[in-house]
Amino acid sequence: MTTGPATNSSFLIMAVRPDGSRAYGFRQAGNSRALADQLRRERLVPVRTIQLPKWAGSSVRFSLKEQAEINTQLSQLLGRGVPLVEAMDVVASAVSVKNRPIIARMRELVAGGASFADSCERVGVFDRVTVAVYRAAERTGDLAGAAKQLAVTQRRQLAVSGKAATLMIYPAIVLTISLAVSVMMLTLIVPRIGKSLTSAGMKLPTYSKVTMAVGEFIGEQFLWICLGLLALGVVAFAFRALIAKGVQRFMRTVPFLRDVVLAQESTRFFTVMAAMTRSGVPLADGLGVAIGALGHPTLRAQLTTLRTKLIEGGILRNLIDNVTALPLTTRRLLIAAERSGDLETAFDTLAIDMAEEVDKKSQRLLSVLEPALIVFMFVIVGSLLLSIMVPMIQAASKSF
Q1: C-alpha to C-alpha distance for 334 and 338, rounded to whole angstroms
Q2: pLDDT of the residue at 30
Q3: Which residue in 67, 149, 329, 379 has a CA-CA distance of 20 to 30 Å to 198?
Q4: 45-51: strand order across its sheet
């Protein structure tokens, strides 16, 4: 079963409109021929196209919010007997203007005889889980039900992502304020006070001299330092995939934070499995797709081993205990569900429970971060204050 999306490339285009004016911009397409076809549908005549390297372009994907809205519309319309081609005319209003040509392309493919899953795969903007669910639903004849389940799944993932984003807002604000105050003190306040103390004949400690010298250097070379940071930002953007992997690896090793990451990964896994089993996908095939959606190496490796042994003839209730990355209660629930033949409900229940677990662990992490951030602010700002206060205290003690 082919479930991977097509790979799109980014193109810089210069084209001519019907009125003779020039059009410039970026487009996503599988190849040059697909790009020309896309421009033709937009009534544009290409003059020059440049294929951008992968690191310079951004892969087009519908956002989770757009996908949830698309599936909600599809489930409602198809459930009421609206033909798929007509339903896609309505679905186009659920996406942003820049993504509407993609829906139009999907409509053309479906009208030309392609299956809905194939059209999703060919436009290359849906993940492999979504395509696999659509493909299974078309075999069972329940595309409306699959779209409804995907909408529920995607809204659940949105809720989990929203909790993670909310968790990072507070530390980001505190760190930004701390760095801004520190830079201002280091470049403006500390050097001026240092010069005043030196002119008054005070002998400054080595630590104060070093701090003031650093502040003066940053102030004098501020423009070059900003340009250097900008260059680092460009390099970081070019290697963003490697940096993201490094950050994820770091997050999986930090106490408290690794618990949140594991809970998020577990929520994603059970959410995908719930969608796959409801669509009639066999357990082994569903595991193959769900494992591909995981990023946690330990959980992924253990589930891959489970799937391999399951295909070889193993029994799930005997294999699930080896997935030690999952909590014991979760494994016991899966064993009980497998015995009763109701894995579909168990996956859905576990997805909800794990989403609640993400919320609890996020709050616990935030309660740990708050005092840690206060200590960080004291260390950064306090060290700058000490570089000023120490020589003043020494001078005051000598005067007495």
Answers
A1: 6
A2: 63
A3: 379
A4: 22-29, 9-16, 45-51
What's the whole-number mean pLDDT along residues 182-201?
80
Residue 258 pLDDT exceeds 60: yes
- Give the global pTM: 0.65
pLDDT of residue 1: 35
Query: What does the mean pLDDT of the chain come to?
Result: 80
Helix (H) or strand (E) holding 96: none
> Which structure tokens are listed for 42?
């937009």
Q: What pLDDT is stored for residue 3 in this prediction?
A: 37
The SS3 call for residue 331 is helix
pLDDT band at residue 5 under the 50/70/90 scheme:
very low
209 backbone dihedrals φ, ψ, rounded to 5°? -60, -45
- State the pairing for strand pair 9-16/22-29: antiparallel
Mean pLDDT, range 119-137, rounded to an integer: 81
- d(CA 224, CA 317) in angstroms, rounded, equals 62
Find tokens 């801004």 and name the residue.
180
- Neighbour tally for 121: CB within 10 Å: 24
Orientation angle between helical segments 100-111 and 32-41, nearest 10 degrees:
100
Distance between CA atoms of 75 and 149, rounded to whole angstroms?
9
Q: Please, how many CA atoms are within 13 Å of residue 361, restricted to the half-sphere of its CB?
A: 19
Length of the chain as a residue count = 400
The region that residue 124 occupies, defined by phi over 0 for left and psi between -120 and 50 for alpha, beta otherwise, is left
Angle value at C-alpha 67, between 64 and 354, nearest 5 degrees: 50
CA angle 342, 345, 331 (to 5 degrees): 75
Within 8 A by CB and 6+ apart from 199, the residues are none
Beta strands in the chain, from DSSP E residues, in sequence order: 9-16, 22-29, 45-51
d(CA 3, CA 312): 22
Least confident of 5-14, 96-105, 256-265: 5-14
Q: Give the span between the Cα atoms of 147 and 120, in whole angstroms.
A: 13
- Higher-confidence residue of 368 and 107: namely 107
Taking each helix axis from N to C end, the angle separating 240-251 and 222-238, rounded to the nearest 10 degrees, works out to 90
